[in-house]
Design brief:
This protein is α/β, with parallel strands linked by helices and 217 residues long. The protein folds into two domains: 116 residues, 3-Layer(aba) Sandwich (Rossmann fold), CATH 3.40.50.2300; 90 residues, Arc Repressor Mutant, subunit A (Orthogonal Bundle), CATH 1.10.10.10. It is built from eight helices and eleven strands. The protein has a five-stranded parallel β-sheet with strand order 2-1-3-4-5, sandwiched between helices. It has a four-stranded antiparallel β-sheet with strand order 6-7-8-9, covered by helices on one side. A two-stranded antiparallel sheet has the order 10-11. The longest helix is centred in the middle third of the chain and has 14 residues. The protein starts with a strand and ends with a strand. This is Response regulator transcription factor. GO terms for molecular function: phosphorelay response regulator activity; transcription cis-regulatory region binding.
């Protein structure tokens, strides 16, 4: 899952991004509304964590523009104002969820994951296929009942493959969903990650390489 964090308090923005990355999510950060729209114009995000009180372009206006463009990401608004009227207003302009500051990080994670499951075709909270069971909320993977210890990036790649439900996923799609904007698209990072993932999942192999197209589980 790929997430954009938009927050002008840089310490908070970086802390949120770091926490989300520890949950095996790919995260980009923007510190103002203009930066948010610029990144959304280049990358496709599943969820946008959007602070409401932003400089340059207000968070409300960012939300309205994204909704008007039919941008596919789900939007969760963050604000210091937690009154009912503020929540209603935030949802009325197109946000999918609303979280008042200060908030528990565990709650933010749960809401981001819940929105991510709704960003495209609905997915179950636990993904299963070919003897592989992946539980995003627990950061747990099992192969035929055996625990598999994966790095955050391996976990993210496996989650994308399982979410495709048997469809082929290209290297470009994996880079889009499992890495952030700082990755060099011309590196062999996908191939290397796939090699280590296959090794950890063990035999018989469950990840198929489709030559010239991508990977399928």
């Amino acid at each position: 899952m790929r997430v954009l964090v938009v927050e002008d308090e840089r310490v908070l923005a970086d802390a949120i991004a770091t926490g989300l990355r520890r949950e095996a999510l790919a995260v980009d950060v923007a510190y103002d509304g203009a930066g948010a729209l610029e990144r959304a114009g280049v990358n496709e995000y599943d969820v946008i964590v959007l602070d409401r009180d932003l400089p340059r372009i207000h968070g409300d206006d960012v939300c309205k523009q994204l909704v008007a463009q039919r941008y596919p990401a789900r939007i969760i608004m963050l604000t210091a104002a937690g009154e009912l009227d503020d929540k209603v207003e935030g949802l009325s302009i197109g946000a999918d969820d609303y979280l008042a500051k200060p908030f528990a990080f565990a709650e933010l994670i749960a809401r981001v994951r819940a929105l991510g499951r709704r960003a495209s075709a609905p997915l179950p909270p636990v993904l299963e296929r070919a003897g592989i069971v992946l539980d995003p909320s627990r950061r747990e993977v099992l192969r035929d009942g055996r625990p598999v210890d994966l790095t955050r990036k391996e976990f993210a790649v496996l989650e994308v493959l399982l979410g495709a439900e048997g469809a082929v996923v290209s290297s470009e799609q994996l880079l889009e969903k499992a890495w952030d904007e700082h990755i060099d698209p011309f590196t062999n990072v996908v191939r290397v990650t796939m090699m280590t993932l296959r090794k950890k999942l063990g035999d018989p192999p469950v990840i198929e390489t489709v030559p010239g197209v991508g990977y399928r589980l």
